[in-house]
Amino acid sequence: MTGGPSHQGALDPGRIRRLPPEVAELIAAGEVVERPASVLKELIENSLDAGARALTIDIEGGGSDLIRVTDDGWGMTEGELAAAFERHATSKLTSAEDLAVVATLGFRGEALASIAAVAEVVAISRERRATRGHEVKVGPAGMRGPTVTAGPVGTTITVRQLFHTLPARRAFLRSPRSEAAACHRVVADAALGRPLVRFLLRSQGRMVLSTPGSGNLPDALASVFGEAARRAAVEVEARGEPVSVWGAICGPDQTLANRQGTVLFVNGRRVQQRSLLAAVEAAYRGMLEVDRHPIAVLQLSCDPLAVDVNVHPTKREVRLRDEGVVYDWLQRACWQALRRAVPASIDPKASPPQSRIEPMASATRPLEGLWADRPPSPQDGPSDTWSLVGAGSWKSLGQAHNRYLVVETPAGLAILDQHAVHEKVLYERYLDALVEGRPGVDSQGLVEPVLVDLPSGCDFDAEIQDELSRAGFAVEQFGERTLRCAAVPAGMAAARAGAALLDALTRRDALPSGGELHRMAALLACHSAVRFGDPLAPEEIRALLTSLAHTKGGITCPHGRPAVLMMGEGLLLAAFHRQ
Questions:
Q1: Rounded distance between C-alpha atoms, residue 43 and residue 526, angstroms
Q2: What sign results for the dihedral spanned by CA atoms 539, 540, 541, 545?
Q3: Which of 18, 77, 149, 403 is 20 to 30 A from 2 (CA-CA)?
Q4: Helices 274-282 and 323-338 sit at what angle, rounded to 10 degrees?
Q5: Which of these, 141, 139, 115, 143, lies nearest to 28 by C-alpha position?
Q6: Percent of the chain with pLDDT over 90
Q7: For residue 427, what are the contacts with CB-CB under 8 A and spacing of at least 6?
Q8: Which secondary-structure segment (H or E) carries 168?
Q9: The three-state (H, E, C) secondary structure of 200-262, written as one string
Q10: Which spans in 250-399 are helix H?
């Protein structure tokens, strides 16, 4: 007997149809080519795998019109150049066993074929031993070439009109400025991961990022984040089993409004692993304000057998065999480095934080649910006593730890987060000044102008200059990647000008459109408010309570954090067993 019918090939597949090759290619390309930045990432990784020590990158139209990557790597022969655009063709793997120990950035052999399926690609390459190069032109219609051409050693790949045959897909791209910013981040990340490689990025013909390729990580940090990051950086090094960590981390005085400054590599591969990002931020616990994120560039090295890199189409995430151990090792390495960078007011003899162990819930349970927006209990007194309208008559009992204000209210006690309360007051003032029909926020001139280095991905144009002017800043271009600030919003300290400007620029495209005025008002309030740790004189506390009484809205700051904790008489009696 046979295992099946002899006429199996003639079976009717019914509704199941094999996709045409061109459709299958577009589906596969969609997994690799999401936007111009993903194209650029694949091309850069190919160049680095080819041993390049210098890359020149040009983009136009945010990368949707043009992406060109030129490297000085090993180059390709005529046959290799033609084969490189075949699907699943690669020089980096030869067997299934190789997947367990992938040591290159690329390995699937899909990138070039996927790019050519949705764009027009021209590739020129010359091998180091050759006296001439070769060129191929590839696109959705197929390949032309290779043909002989002149060219330096290395490879140049030019991608034009991305998604030009897929207008619906092209319509989903963000603005050219946003797509260019994403490309900038890709190049910046690669430069931070390979300080030995020289990177030059031009957008619309203008140089926006240049790294020296000196092999010195602080040099790369300065190129991407500015000189202040270089000065604030401290070395991280913890070598052992099962993982070694090295790199640089900046002290808590140098932070960003987003997580783009935390750049992590596992065995040389840029990853966006949530657990590892959490480990780095856990090392800063108690040092950073809410919504501030560290600047850190860290390399993790571990046994390739303990890492699975083949779990995500874009290779953004990896699977770690001992993820909990790696988390603890990374957190401790960062915390040890921060001991050399934190201000003297933080006790360097304190024990490092226990990894992922939080205080017992019962420690704070007596205070749960006591925000001012809940209905008052009968013991709390009249409902209007919970309102902030009466804050001007509250009696200040003093300041605790230079962070909290303790006050007596008709209904009991209140504890105020001084930064959040002041931020709330200033937010309303700035927002009122920014709404339509008002000239804008008042400015105060600086005795000495502040110079601000623009990080990679931040553009300064007439539109943002007008927006900043209305917000109270007087800013102008001062060199290729430097701004000169001669005035700041009234009430803002000159020392906060640089951080405020960088926040305004880096957050510009990170938030949904339509909330620009609220975003700017919240940003100005955050950078103008008293800090969490500033000592306040009694008259300053009184002025803050008076201002709070005239502030509309609930009791949270613009970021949604509670600003006031109310403890009614009923709670106090119950807590001391007096009822």
A1: 40
A2: positive
A3: 18
A4: 30
A5: 115
A6: 39
A7: 521, 522, 525, 557, 558
A8: helix 167-171
A9: EEEECCEEEEECCCCCCHHHHHHHHHCHHHHHHEEEEEECCCCEEEEEEEECCCCEECCHHHE
A10: 274-282, 323-338
Whole-prediction pTM value?
Answer: 0.67
Helix crossing, 176-193 with 217-225: angle to 10°?
170
Question: CA–CA separation, 438 vs 150, rounded Å?
Answer: 61
Is residue 392 packed enough to be buried (19+ CB in 10 Å), middle (13-18) or exposed (0-12)? middle
pLDDT in tens, 403-423: 999 999 988 899 999 999 999
Q: Which two tokens stand for residue 69?
A: 């990557």
Q: How many residues does the chain have?
A: 579
Cα gap 504→524, rounded to integer Å: 9
Indicate whether 26 pLDDT > 80.
Answer: no
Whether domain 21-210 has CATH 1.10.600.10: the reply is no
Closest CA to 73 of 109, 104, 36: 104
Confidence of residue 99 (pLDDT cuts 50, 70, 90): very low
Domain 363-579, what fold?
formyl-coa transferase, domain 3 (3.30.1540)
- pLDDT over threshold 50, residue 227: yes
Are 67 and 44 contacting, i.e. CB atoms less than 8 angstroms apart?
no
Phi and psi, residue 517, nearest 5°: -65, -45
Q: Positive or negative, the Cα torsion across 214, 218, 220, 226? A: negative
Q: Note whether 534 and 422 are within 8 A (CB).
A: no
pLDDT exceeds cutoff 90 at 484: yes
Q: Of 288, 301, 286, 240, whose CA–CA distance to 261 is shortest?
A: 288
Helix, strand or coil for residue 303?
A: coil
From residue 48, give the alpha-carbon distance in Å to each of 104, 290, 339.
9, 37, 35
Query: What's domain 217-338's architecture?
Result: 2-Layer Sandwich (3.30)
Q: In the structure encoding, which two tokens stand for residue 103, read together? A: 């040591």
Q: Find, among 121, 114, 115, the residue nearest to 135 by Cα.
A: 121
Tokens at residue 302, please?
């571990």
Name the burial class of residue 116, with classes exposed (0-12), middle (13-18) and buried (19+) by CB atoms within 10 angstroms of its CB.
Answer: buried
Residue matched to tokens 């790597």:
73
The average pLDDT across 322-350 equals: 68
Please report where in the chains the tokens 């571990």 appear, as a residue.
Answer: 302
Left, alpha or beta for 264 (phi > 0: left; psi -120 to 50: alpha)?
beta
Per the model's pLDDT, the better-predicted residue between 36 and 434 turns out to be 36
What are the extents of the domains in the chain? 21-210, 217-338, 363-579
Side chain identity, residue 67: I
Overall average pLDDT of the 274-284 stretch: 86
346, 285 Cβ separation under 8 angstroms: no
